[in-house]
Design a protein that fits this description.
Number of domains: 2
Radius of gyration: 21 Å
Shape: globular
Low-confidence stretches: none
Distance between the termini: 47 Å
Mean pLDDT: 88
């Protein structure tokens, strides 16, 4: 099937209110995309190549560097490669890197709105999902922070991805849901340390899925020794600890 036809069919199946919310969010967030402003907490362009240290070792871990790696491979490296091919001037290359990095952040914001819609619709229906999507898409805080190149929007996105899989545990107690919830919780923690808090949703979803109706019926073995839950929590620790390993 023609890719364009597939996209058209997908758009036709997508809720028009959600599409409108995403378009409004995109339009609002594009304003000021070329502004030359560096937030003091921005992590997108932290140095990764320091004298006396192995490549990709920032030499500091006061803040987790995952988003710095993420932005390097999806923005800095491809733009610098194109710059060498086409002879971009330094100011031009820096501007393109900044704009494209902001576009990536805005893309994560749009996906976050979509995830919120999906989660709420699954539990509370389409009306509630539409309201939440419209509120999130027009939130002044989200729009402003999509310019700053800080980790606020990225950590929200990774937390929502993790929560999506934790939420799925309520409906299907599959290993993949536990592992992916744990994996993306680790990614969230590697983006911003307090992102690890979303890991509570994995444990809570597991407890709710047991459908405990009375204290005397608490299945302690399924709580304390569940292979699925333990695997998910191990995944959190494994992924979150990766960014703390210095070269």
């Amino acid at each position: 099937m023609n890719p364009i036809l597939r996209i058209k069919q997908s758009l036709e199946k997508t809720d028009k209110i959600l599409l409108a919310a995403l378009l409004v969010c995109l339009a609002l967030s594009l304003y000021g995309i070329t502004v030359k402003y560096e937030n003091p907490d921005q992590m997108a362009f932290q140095p990764l190549f320091l004298d006396g240290k192995l490549p990709f070792n920032p030499g500091w871990f006061d803040k987790p560097p995952f988003h710095t790696y993420f932005n390097y491979f999806l923005s800095v490296l491809p733009v610098s490669t194109l710059g060498k091919m086409f002879g971009f001037s330094v100011p031009t290359q820096e501007l393109i890197e900044t704009v494209w990095s902001r576009v990536l952040t805005k893309f994560m914001l749009l996906l976050s709105v979509g995830l919120l819609y999906h989660i709420v619709r699954k539990s509370y229906g389409i009306v509630a999902a539409r309201v939440i999507a419209l509120i999130a898409a027009t939130s002044a805080g989200f729009i402003v922070y999509s310019h700053f190149l800080t980790v606020d929007i990225p950590v929200m996105f990774w937390m929502l991805v993790a929560f999506t899989f934790s939420h799925s545990i309520l409906f299907e107690q599959k290993y993949s849901n536990y592992l992916l919830a744990g994996f993306f919780t680790g990614i969230a923690a590697s983006t911003k340390y307090n992102g690890v808090a979303i890991g509570f949703s994995l444990v809570i979803a597991h407890l709710i899925s047991l459908r405990i109706e009375a204290w005397k019926q608490i299945p302690w073995n399924q709580i304390l020794f569940s292979k699925r839950l333990i695997s998910g929590l191990i995944m959190v620790v494994d992924i979150a600890s990766c960014d703390s390993l210095e070269g």
